[in-house]
Amino acid sequence: MKKIFALVASLTAISAVCAGVLAYVDALTREPIAQMLVKKTVEAAKAVLPPETVSVESARFADGEEYFVGLGGDGNVVGYAVKGGDPGGYGGDVVLMVGLRADKTTVVCYKTLSAAETPGLGMKLNTVEFSSQFCGRDGSSLKVRKDGGDIDAITSATITSRAVCGAIASAVAKLR
Fold first, then answer.
1. CA 26, CA 15: separation in Å to the nearest integer?
2. What is the pLDDT of residues 26-58, one digit of tens each?
3. Alpha-carbon distance 33 to 119, whole Å?
4. Residue 22 burial (CB count, 10 A)
5. pTM for this one?
6. Which of 16, 60, 120, 130 is 20 to 30 A away from residue 145, measured at CA?
Protein backbone atom coordinates (compact mmCIF):
# COMPACT_ATOMS: atom_id res chain seq x y z
CA MET A 1 0.00 0.00 0.00
CA LYS A 2 2.88 2.35 0.81
CA LYS A 3 4.31 1.59 -2.62
CA ILE A 4 1.10 2.75 -4.34
CA PHE A 5 1.06 6.02 -2.38
CA ALA A 6 4.72 6.62 -3.26
CA LEU A 7 3.99 6.03 -6.94
CA VAL A 8 0.94 8.32 -6.85
CA ALA A 9 2.92 11.02 -5.06
CA SER A 10 5.82 10.84 -7.52
CA LEU A 11 3.48 10.89 -10.55
CA THR A 12 1.61 13.83 -9.04
CA ALA A 13 4.88 15.71 -8.53
CA ILE A 14 6.04 14.96 -12.07
CA SER A 15 2.68 16.06 -13.48
CA ALA A 16 2.78 19.28 -11.46
CA VAL A 17 6.30 20.08 -12.73
CA CYS A 18 5.26 19.35 -16.33
CA ALA A 19 2.15 21.52 -15.98
CA GLY A 20 4.28 24.33 -14.57
CA VAL A 21 6.78 24.08 -17.43
CA LEU A 22 3.96 24.10 -20.01
CA ALA A 23 2.35 27.14 -18.37
CA TYR A 24 5.71 28.94 -18.36
CA VAL A 25 6.39 28.16 -22.04
CA ASP A 26 2.85 29.25 -22.93
CA ALA A 27 3.37 32.56 -21.14
CA LEU A 28 6.68 33.09 -22.96
CA THR A 29 5.37 32.30 -26.44
CA ARG A 30 1.83 33.72 -26.38
CA GLU A 31 2.84 37.31 -27.26
CA PRO A 32 5.41 36.46 -29.98
CA ILE A 33 2.89 34.13 -31.63
CA ALA A 34 0.20 36.84 -31.55
CA GLN A 35 2.65 39.38 -33.04
CA MET A 36 3.63 36.94 -35.78
CA LEU A 37 -0.04 36.38 -36.65
CA VAL A 38 -0.62 40.13 -36.91
CA LYS A 39 2.46 40.49 -39.12
CA LYS A 40 1.31 37.61 -41.35
CA THR A 41 -2.14 39.18 -41.69
CA VAL A 42 -0.76 42.62 -42.62
CA GLU A 43 1.68 41.11 -45.15
CA ALA A 44 -1.14 39.09 -46.71
CA ALA A 45 -3.31 42.22 -46.93
CA LYS A 46 -0.57 44.15 -48.71
CA ALA A 47 -0.01 41.24 -51.10
CA VAL A 48 -3.64 40.97 -52.22
CA LEU A 49 -4.45 44.64 -52.74
CA PRO A 50 -4.51 46.00 -56.30
CA PRO A 51 -1.06 46.82 -57.75
CA GLU A 52 -1.88 50.53 -57.94
CA THR A 53 -2.07 50.68 -54.13
CA VAL A 54 0.31 53.30 -52.74
CA SER A 55 -0.65 53.17 -49.07
CA VAL A 56 -2.63 50.88 -46.79
CA GLU A 57 -4.89 51.90 -43.93
CA SER A 58 -6.38 49.66 -41.29
CA ALA A 59 -10.11 49.88 -40.55
CA ARG A 60 -12.60 47.92 -38.47
CA PHE A 61 -16.06 46.55 -39.07
CA ALA A 62 -18.78 47.17 -36.48
CA ASP A 63 -17.97 43.83 -34.83
CA GLY A 64 -14.33 44.89 -34.36
CA GLU A 65 -12.81 42.70 -37.08
CA GLU A 66 -9.98 44.40 -38.94
CA TYR A 67 -9.83 44.93 -42.68
CA PHE A 68 -7.53 47.00 -44.86
CA VAL A 69 -8.14 49.80 -47.35
CA GLY A 70 -5.74 50.34 -50.25
CA LEU A 71 -5.32 53.92 -51.41
CA GLY A 72 -3.96 55.11 -54.75
CA GLY A 73 -1.58 58.00 -55.33
CA ASP A 74 -4.48 60.46 -55.44
CA GLY A 75 -5.80 59.27 -52.06
CA ASN A 76 -8.82 57.48 -53.54
CA VAL A 77 -9.74 53.95 -52.52
CA VAL A 78 -8.44 51.41 -55.05
CA GLY A 79 -9.24 48.25 -53.12
CA TYR A 80 -9.84 46.34 -49.93
CA ALA A 81 -8.25 43.38 -48.18
CA VAL A 82 -10.74 41.41 -46.11
CA LYS A 83 -10.46 38.15 -44.21
CA GLY A 84 -12.97 35.56 -45.37
CA GLY A 85 -13.55 32.06 -44.12
CA ASP A 86 -15.53 28.93 -44.82
CA PRO A 87 -15.94 26.03 -42.37
CA GLY A 88 -16.60 23.56 -45.19
CA GLY A 89 -13.04 22.67 -46.12
CA TYR A 90 -12.03 19.01 -46.16
CA GLY A 91 -9.73 19.58 -43.18
CA GLY A 92 -11.86 22.23 -41.47
CA ASP A 93 -11.89 26.00 -41.79
CA VAL A 94 -10.35 27.64 -44.83
CA VAL A 95 -9.40 31.24 -44.00
CA LEU A 96 -8.23 33.59 -46.75
CA MET A 97 -7.17 37.21 -47.05
CA VAL A 98 -9.10 38.34 -50.11
CA GLY A 99 -8.15 41.37 -52.19
CA LEU A 100 -11.07 43.21 -53.76
CA ARG A 101 -11.24 46.18 -56.09
CA ALA A 102 -12.92 49.44 -55.04
CA ASP A 103 -16.29 48.12 -56.31
CA LYS A 104 -16.14 45.69 -53.33
CA THR A 105 -16.92 42.59 -55.40
CA THR A 106 -14.20 42.11 -58.04
CA VAL A 107 -11.49 39.75 -56.80
CA VAL A 108 -7.86 40.82 -57.18
CA CYS A 109 -6.39 37.67 -55.62
CA TYR A 110 -6.20 35.85 -52.29
CA LYS A 111 -3.64 34.52 -49.83
CA THR A 112 -4.26 31.60 -47.50
CA LEU A 113 -4.10 32.50 -43.82
CA SER A 114 -5.01 29.04 -42.57
CA ALA A 115 -6.13 25.75 -44.08
CA ALA A 116 -5.63 22.17 -42.97
CA GLU A 117 -6.36 20.58 -46.31
CA THR A 118 -4.79 17.37 -47.61
CA PRO A 119 -1.15 17.94 -48.64
CA GLY A 120 -0.69 17.45 -52.37
CA LEU A 121 -4.42 17.73 -53.07
CA GLY A 122 -6.41 20.37 -51.22
CA MET A 123 -3.35 22.46 -50.47
CA LYS A 124 -3.16 23.14 -54.19
CA LEU A 125 -5.44 26.04 -53.33
CA ASN A 126 -2.17 27.98 -52.98
CA THR A 127 -1.01 27.30 -56.54
CA VAL A 128 -1.09 30.00 -59.19
CA GLU A 129 -2.91 27.62 -61.55
CA PHE A 130 -5.87 27.40 -59.19
CA SER A 131 -5.90 30.85 -57.58
CA SER A 132 -5.47 32.83 -60.82
CA GLN A 133 -8.90 31.78 -62.09
CA PHE A 134 -10.51 33.96 -59.39
CA CYS A 135 -8.82 37.18 -60.57
CA GLY A 136 -11.23 39.71 -62.04
CA ARG A 137 -14.35 37.72 -61.14
CA ASP A 138 -17.33 38.74 -59.06
CA GLY A 139 -16.53 37.23 -55.67
CA SER A 140 -20.16 37.04 -54.58
CA SER A 141 -21.18 34.51 -57.24
CA LEU A 142 -18.33 32.02 -57.48
CA LYS A 143 -19.12 28.34 -57.92
CA VAL A 144 -17.20 25.31 -59.09
CA ARG A 145 -18.24 23.73 -62.40
CA LYS A 146 -19.84 20.77 -60.60
CA ASP A 147 -22.24 23.25 -58.98
CA GLY A 148 -23.03 25.13 -62.19
CA GLY A 149 -20.27 27.74 -61.96
CA ASP A 150 -17.15 28.35 -63.99
CA ILE A 151 -14.36 27.65 -61.47
CA ASP A 152 -12.30 24.55 -62.26
CA ALA A 153 -12.08 22.58 -59.04
CA ILE A 154 -8.82 21.11 -57.86
CA THR A 155 -8.71 17.50 -59.05
CA SER A 156 -9.87 15.22 -56.20
CA ALA A 157 -10.41 18.27 -53.96
CA THR A 158 -13.80 19.67 -54.91
CA ILE A 159 -14.67 20.22 -51.25
CA THR A 160 -11.63 22.48 -50.83
CA SER A 161 -12.48 24.33 -54.04
CA ARG A 162 -16.01 24.97 -52.77
CA ALA A 163 -14.58 26.22 -49.47
CA VAL A 164 -12.35 28.71 -51.31
CA CYS A 165 -15.40 30.00 -53.22
CA GLY A 166 -17.27 30.26 -49.91
CA ALA A 167 -14.40 32.07 -48.17
CA ILE A 168 -14.21 34.63 -50.96
CA ALA A 169 -17.99 35.12 -50.88
CA SER A 170 -17.85 35.67 -47.10
CA ALA A 171 -15.20 38.37 -47.55
CA VAL A 172 -17.34 40.13 -50.16
CA ALA A 173 -20.40 39.89 -47.90
CA LYS A 174 -18.55 41.65 -45.07
CA LEU A 175 -18.03 44.76 -47.20
CA ARG A 176 -21.67 45.04 -48.24
1. 16
2. 999 999 998 998 899 999 999 999 999 999 999
3. 24
4. 10
5. 0.84
6. 120
